[in-house]
Amino acid sequence: MQWTLVIPLKPLALAKSRLADAAGDGLRPGLALAFAQDTVAAALASPAVHDVAVVTDDALAGRELAALGARIVPDEPGDGLNAALVHAAAVVRSMRPKSPVAALNADLPALRPAELTRTLETASAFPRAFLPDAAGIGTTLLSAAPGQALRPAFGPDSRARHRASGAVELPLTSVDSVRQDVDTGDDLRTALALGVGPRTAAAAARLLIPGQ
User: Fold this and answer.
1) Which of 173, 212, 209, 172 is nearest to 193 (CA)?
2) What is the CATH number of the domain that holds 96?
3) pLDDT tens across 4-26, in order?
């Protein structure tokens, strides 16, 4: 089974505000783009992934991610993360109606294709499934089998909300790179320790991160 991944990305100028402890305003947009580039590149390298659609209205991010092979879907609803994901899932399913679809965070710079493949193969056994983030509160991946609505509930406490919606929580072992999103300087240090992609490594090299 090959999946279509939907990756949401807000305008770069607004992204990663919680990284203020590690990066100034001038560096955060570049970091956010690097995270997304490494996430998309790793996702496309997974044999379980047929294609990737990035839902964004950021022109620079759209150009850079399209160059990696992603399809760019404009955020036409303009009504937040979950509405953007519902819209993008509908767009990709209009082209591949029998495709399983998964929403994946754009800030997984340590993502490893083998771990993503393992996660998607496990998810394929369920109508809907999700993977909690490393903090154990949020969600980094939400999947929907063919014929199933994605029904995203990202935001505060999304782990609990996705579980309450009937999605199956996937095993947490041996998939650290799929769970390690980056919102804070501590998250970035953890991702760097796991091993990030080349674009994030280059962007992070310009930062002064205590404990790096």
Assistant:
1) 212
2) 3.90.550.10
3) 999 999 999 887 766 766 665 56
